[in-house]
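Retro notes, structure queue

What went well: the backlog is down to a handful. What didn't: a couple of records were mislabeled last round, so from now on we paste the full input next to the output in the thread. Example, using Succinate dehydrogenase hydrophobic membrane anchor subunit from Streptomyces hazeniae:
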Amino acid sequence: MTGSSAAGSGEPYGPDNPAPVIEAPRARTARTPKSTRTNFELYGWIFMRLSGILLTVLVLGHLVIQLVVDGGVSRISFAFVAGRWASPFWQAWDLIMLWLAMLHGGNGLRTVINDYAERENTRFWLKMLLYTATVFTVLLGTLVIFTFDPNIR
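Corresponding output:
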């Protein structure tokens, strides 16, 4: 090809096909409003990675202990749970698993809502429903773990 050719013609960049020029970003002035952005999404992203790793350990440990070490599903009964939750260790294990699972799942659903709910009003109400369900489940689960009475039978 002779002469100058337009960028994006499919040929490699060179003297006859220069790379496109990217404009410099606009400079801040005294009248430019300050950014109101926070690092919330970054912290949410980090939380998802760390909680996912910890949940993997907690859930796999829970399954191995419950299903392999302690005799399988046929052994799980009200008395089995009562004996388990008599120990602060198992209460803490289940509580951490509950909280992390609900917060991890809630944060994931919040991201899905932000990505797919197009109208601001719809996004707001879906997230309020999600937050309400998450808080209700966490509070109810915590209450059950700490107030479980093995003598109600």
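Agreed that this is the format going forward. Reviewer comment attached to the example: The CA atoms of residues 130 and 136 lie 10 Å apart.
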